[in-house]
Amino acid sequence: MSGSYLENLLHSEILRAPVLHRAVRTLDLPLGSRGLDAGCGVGLQCKLLAEAVGEGGHVTGIDLSDNFVRYGTKWIEKEGWSQRISLVQGSIEKLPFEDNTFDWAWSVDCVGYGPWDAQPMLEELRRVIRPGGRLALLAWSSERLLPGYPGLEAKLGATSVGMAPFSESMEPERHVLRLLGKLRALGLDNVRAEAFVGSIHAPLDKDSRKAIKDLLEMRWQGAEKELSSQDRAEFVRLCHSESPDFILDHPDYFAFYTYSMFHGIVS
User: Fold this and answer.
1) What would the pLDDT profile of 14-68 be if each residue is shown by its tens digit?
2) Which residues pair with 166 in a beta bridge?
3) What's the CA gap between 256 and 144, in Å, rounded?
4) Cα–Cα distance between 143 and 199 in angstroms, integer?
5) Which of 111, 123, 235, 257 has its CA 20 to 30 A from that of 191?
6) Angle between helices 44-53 and 4-27 (to 10 degrees)
């Protein structure tokens, strides 16, 4: 894994961390509790969760990528969190934990966030949570990044890249915004859904500017191939940093984005 990968993630955390922090506060995780971050990547949210449960708590992160786990473990050691966070490599569809191991489980942009069937993962997460514990699933659900250009942004959102990780042809029931029904089907109690909004506006400091620039590049990478020549030219004019009309240079720049959280109590 390149040394710049974590740097890019840390830059994106400028946008995500405040939003996810509000979600964590809403869950009111018990101090001293033990939880699971399913699809943890390099463990950035593990640190956020470990702060929430306090010194007596512990967070275990699991990810399918051995590279992510090895890289994240080194980062956690460097940050001094090894006593409160541990990362393991493994599949969420077959978790390497006993029944009722954790007080809660959490997953961001992973379980339910894609065209695949989430049911095996959901059943495994329920299995490892103690009765009375909470399961929370979060996903990036919307953004408005081009203020003043709603038509172009709508067209970008209608491309295959703009819809990713979903597609127009996938079954509606598999969409992340339909997770309420899946959690009820698991037998969870007090099932709820809510959205958390993040925003950013000019003047942008260096770190915020890089975070939004990276987001523009990642969100619609390759989307211009599906645009008309006129819209493609407008996209390049607004979204390429070399352009004299780069949208982030506008003195009135403003953007917002949302995370949606679906959660309930294991009975």
Assistant:
1) 899 999 999 999 999 999 999 999 999 999 999 999 999 999 999 999 999 999 9
2) none
3) 5
4) 9
5) 257
6) 30
Residues 202 and 254: beta-carbon distance below 8 Å: yes
Q: Are 33 and 129 in contact (CB under 8 A)?
A: no
Q: Which residues pair with 259 in a beta bridge?
A: 140, 196
Which residue in 158, 151, 93 sits closest to 119, CA to CA? 93
- Nearest residue to 61 (alpha-carbon basis) of 22, 98, 35, 25: 35
Global pTM value: 0.94
Tokens of 55: 């010194």
The CB density around residue 39, as the number of other CB atoms within 10 Å, is 20
